[in-house]
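Progress note, sequence design subtask.
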């Protein structure tokens, strides 16, 4: 009796082991560490340790900037890692800064306080969702709107600096209110912010660049709260300056690709 080739094929397929997809450990370790930074910041804010809470936000920023670079350098990019990174960013740079600001100062102005905190948190979620959708059509040299880590640095940096200067949150509710609205709404604008993604770490640079980096590190160490907050304030307004300059020169102000061949790009240009 001749064997049935169809049955043999089915038997061979059933005998093959099922390959399970794994998860790359190294880049996701950085992402989880950044997530822990945001979680730790929330816990410290609940305990009234706003100094530690704000430092944790900046630590999460550093870790968040490393996970993508590590994934690219080790060729371990994955769709899982991208989604994990967005969810971690929502906690560390969306929910955590909003809750810290509310606990530190905004609680004292009642409904206006949670209004400002919620606007910031909601805008962070919208910013991250739009970033995920528009990744393939945005000019890589620029972010569309203020990136959420920079917005978190504005909020956390302000709290850190005020604490260092001896100002309590109860004395600064309206400046905090205004800063939360500014940072939140700037995240969802179409204003271009330089992304620094065209800076390649593997390329050789002039010796003067290394000296400049050393000077920047030294300046930051003079008084980290003042210097870091000042740097992010400059970055936080740089997009509007670039937008105004491009508009004055008659250049394209949108960072979206000028091609509208793909239907998903319809309506993205502003």
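Output:
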């Amino acid at each position: 009796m001749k064997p049935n080739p169809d049955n043999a094929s089915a038997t061979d397929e059933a005998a093959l082991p099922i390959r399970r997809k794994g998860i790359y450990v190294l880049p996701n370790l950085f992402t989880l560490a950044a997530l822990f930074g945001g979680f730790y910041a929330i816990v410290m804010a609940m305990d009234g340790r706003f100094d530690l809470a704000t430092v944790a936000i900046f630590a999460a920023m550093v870790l968040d900037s490393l996970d993508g670079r590590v994934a690219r350098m080790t060729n371990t990019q994955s769709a899982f890692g991208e989604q994990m990174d967005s969810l971690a960013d929502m906690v560390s740079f969306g929910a955590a800064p909003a809750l810290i600001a509310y606990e530190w100062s905004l609680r004292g102005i009642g409904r206006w306080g949670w209004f400002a905190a919620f606007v910031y948190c909601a805008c962070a979620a919208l910013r991250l969702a739009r970033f995920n959708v528009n990744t393939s059509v945005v000019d890589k040299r620029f972010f569309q709107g203020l990136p959420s880590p920079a917005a978190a640095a504005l909020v956390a940096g302000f709290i850190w600096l005020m604490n260092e200067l001896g100002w309590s949150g109860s004395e600064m509710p309206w400046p905090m209110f205004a800063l939360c609205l500014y940072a939140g709404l700037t995240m969802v604008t179409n204003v271009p912010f330089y992304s620094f993604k065209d800076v390649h770490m593997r390329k050789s640079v002039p010796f003067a660049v290394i000296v400049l980096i050393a000077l920047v590190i030294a300046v930051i160490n003079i008084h980290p709260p003042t210097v870091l907050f000042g740097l992010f304030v400059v970055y936080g307004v740089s997009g509007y300056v670039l937008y105004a300059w491009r508009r004055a020169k008659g250049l394209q102000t949108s960072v979206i690709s000028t091609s509208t061949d793909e239907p998903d790009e319809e309506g993205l240009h502003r």
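Confidence is low (pLDDT under 50) at residues 258-270. Work on this subtask will continue into the next period as scheduled.
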